[in-house]
């Protein structure tokens, strides 16, 4: 950027093509970045209360810089009663006291920038917390008031209004409506919550709601945020008639409605007013590719998470078809594909890949089935190399780089996820992928909290993680951590691995084999037998030892 400005000023001529290209590439950092997801609550606890915090993250920024990532996405860090781990926000312009202060966030953003790391924050526009000032005001106000118009309040059905206004179910289980009571205890209207009752849905037909969120975006862009991850991005607008789902209404009354796009066009204008390097990234679970890519027209979002890739089984044909489809649908809208293996909502992929059924379904139906952790780990190594060789941006969820597995045996009384509560335990929920990171030492808290901390980590860490700490893995060339460090370094240095085309090579069945740039070739063996390697000058990186010069099952190699 500075370079371009200097040149422009001195010569009063437009920048040369090279300089302009470099500046464009820097502005479009989100097209090819390796983005590390920090789940603050479980990353590093600086003050010993058993919960991770922003000073904890600040202390570990050198670790992240050395890992070789270019951006961090933080899960919501705002004041929250934590009914849904911070996705119930009470104040969009402050920091949760357990995590720190606004000054901590400012310092963290500045220090990340000094290390060349971009900062993506999480904005939750579909709903807030029931403790948010606007919802409290709505509860205190009368039916039909402007305060209630910022949410979805409706009278109940039935003679005494004791039935919910429609048949919608909460995504976390149970009805999507809760009835409120007046101060004297008389039952009143119902309000809509697509998630937990503590997460009332905003009414996006309200101009006040629209103006408020545009202002929240500016608040964080002003503080230096480089990108926004938009939570539940396709759910914001609702059919004002609120029809029963049983009546099979078309279009869907709250998923991916056409009128949601206006919102993102307005957000894009806000982002562009900051000079074009601020990214909007959607959490979109939309199966129809046509509808999915609609969000990336050049006046809306920049990119989105690739959930079909995450959900895919460890199967060459399935992965190949997801990769092809991803590239095919992103190309016409000039959006970068993204590749993600895990996040804070899904079973960790070491565990998924170690099960008989290696695909992932949001109902977590495979939970508790036998897991071969060794096999899952071996596949996770190969999957990381596959992922980092694909064109576009990649996501790393904290702990992926350590090969952490899903903690399935958390005692019921310690589980925190509302999904567990609201499904009466039939769905175990997401706590198992949110367990605090092991940094060092032989026993819990594994350096997550300072020595002698009064509180235990908010979720218990398994004793078996003693072999997976950052300390143990550092310097061990066979560790997952060193594989990630090497792969991310090569990915950054090899221009052929940046955003750009890929070419499939003819290969044996159940083998993925493709070339990036002029000379970098990635071969992944998902078959049950070892396969021969194509001609090569050099092995750049490998996930496992070769066997008599052959690539063994569930292994990957980068060749030149
Ligand atoms: C998104 C988040 C998830 C959260 C939900 C409700 O799916 O990733 O963690 O529970 O939205 O905000």
How many DSSP E strands?
16
The structural domain count equals: 3
**Share of residues in helices:** 25-40%
Q: Tell me the name of the CATH class of the largest domain.
A: Alpha Beta
Counting DSSP H or I runs of 4 or more residues, the number of helices is: 15
According to CATH, the homologous superfamily of the largest domain is Glycosidases
The hetero compounds bound to this protein are: alpha-D-glucopyranose
Q: What kind of oligomer do you see?
A: single chain
- Give the mean pLDDT: 94
Characterize the main sheet: 8 strands, parallel
Q: Please name the CATH architecture of the largest domain.
A: Alpha-Beta Barrel
Structure class? alpha/beta
Low-pLDDT regions: 1-15
Strand order of the largest sheet: 9-8-7-3-2-1-11-10
Radius of gyration: 24 Å
> If you consult CATH, what is the topology of the largest domain?
TIM Barrel
Assess the beta-strand content as a share of residues.
5-15%
Q: What is the CA-CA span between the terminal residues?
A: 33 Å
Shape: globular
Topology of this structure?
Elements: H1 2-11, H2 17-27, E1 34-38, H3 54-67, E2 71-74, H4 102-114, E3 118-123, H5 133-140, E4 153-154, E5 177-181, E6 187-192, H6 207-222, E7 227-230, H7 260-272, E8 279-282, H8 289-293, E9 303-304, H9 307-311, H10 316-330, E10 338-340, H11 349-352, H12 373-389, E11 393-397, H13 418-422, H14 470-473, H15 480-493, E12 502-504, E13 511-516, E14 520-525, E15 539-542, E16 555-559
Parallel strand pairs: 1-2, 1-11, 2-3, 3-7, 7-8, 8-9, 10-11
Antiparallel strand pairs: 4-6, 5-6, 12-13, 13-14, 14-16, 15-16
This protein binds alpha-D-glucopyranose (GLC).
């Amino acid at each position: 950027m500075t370079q371009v400005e200097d040149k422009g000023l001195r010569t009063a001529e437009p920048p040369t093509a090279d300089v302009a290209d470099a500046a464009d590439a820097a502005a479009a950092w989100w097209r090819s970045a390796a983005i590390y997801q920090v789940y603050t609550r479980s990353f590093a606890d600086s003050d010993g209360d058993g919960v991770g915090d922003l000073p904890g993250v600040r202390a570990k920024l050198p670790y992240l810089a050395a890992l070789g990532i270019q951006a961090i996405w933080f899960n919501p860090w705002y004041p929250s009663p934590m009914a849904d781990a911070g996705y119930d926000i009470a104040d969009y312009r402050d920091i949760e006291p357990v995590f720190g202060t606004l000054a901590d966030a400012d310092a963290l953003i500045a220090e990340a920038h000094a290390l060349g790391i971009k900062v993506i924050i999480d904005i939750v526009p579909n709903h807030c917390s029931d403790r948010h000032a606007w919802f409290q005001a709505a509860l205190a106000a009368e039916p039909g008031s402007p305060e209630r118009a910022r949410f979805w309040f409706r009278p109940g059905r039935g003679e005494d209004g004791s039935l919910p206004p429609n048949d919608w179910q909460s995504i976390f289980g149970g009805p999507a409506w809760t009835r409120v009571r007046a101060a004297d205890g008389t039952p009143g209207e119902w309000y809509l919550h697509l998630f937990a009752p503590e997460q009332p849905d905003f009414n996006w037909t309200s101009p006040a709601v629209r103006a408020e969120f545009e202002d929240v975006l500016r608040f964080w862009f002003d503080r230096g945020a480089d990108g926004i991850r938009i939570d539940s991005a396709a759910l914001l607008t609702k059919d004002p008639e609120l029809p029963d789902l049983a009546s099979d209404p078309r279009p869907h009354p709250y998923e991916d409605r056409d009128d949601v796009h206006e919102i993102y066009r307005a957000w894009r204008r806000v982002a562009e007013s900051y000079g074009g390097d601020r990214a909007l990234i959607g959490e979109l679970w939309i199966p129809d590719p046509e509808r999915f890519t609609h969000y990336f027209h050049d006046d809306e979002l920049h990119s989105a998470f690739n959930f079909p890739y995450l959900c895919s089984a460890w199967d060459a044909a399935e992965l190949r078809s997801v990769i092809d489809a991803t590239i095919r649908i992103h190309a016409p809208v000039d959006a970068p594909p993204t590749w993600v293996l895990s996040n804070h909502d899904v079973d960790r992929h070491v565990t998924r890949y170690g099960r008989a059924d290696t695909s992932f379904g949001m109902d977590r139906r495979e939970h508790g089935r036998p897991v071969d952790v060794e096999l899952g780990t071996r596949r996770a190594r190969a999957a990381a190399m596959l992922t980092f060789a694909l064109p576009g941006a990649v996501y790393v969820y904290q702990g992926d780089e350590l090969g952490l597995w899903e903690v399935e045996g958390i005692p019921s009384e310690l589980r925190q996820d509302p999904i567990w509560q609201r499904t009466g335990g039939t769905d175990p929920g997401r706590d198992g992928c949110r367990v605090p990171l092991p940094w060092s030492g032989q026993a819990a808290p594994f350096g997550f909290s300072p020595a002698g901390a009064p509180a235990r980590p908010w979720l218990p860490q398994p004793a078996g993680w003693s072999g997976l700490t950052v300390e143990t893995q550092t310097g061990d060339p066979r560790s997952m951590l060193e594989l990630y460090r090497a792969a991310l370094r090569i990915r950054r240095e090899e221009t052929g691995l940046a955003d750009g085309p890929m070419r499939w090579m003819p290969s044996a069945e159940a083998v993925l084999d493709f070339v990036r740039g002029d000379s970098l070739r990635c071969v992944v063996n998902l078959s049950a037998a070892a396969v021969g390697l194509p001609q090569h000058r050099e092995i750049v990186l490998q996930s496992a030892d070769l066997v008599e010069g052959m690539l063994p099952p569930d292994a990957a190699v980068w060749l030149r």
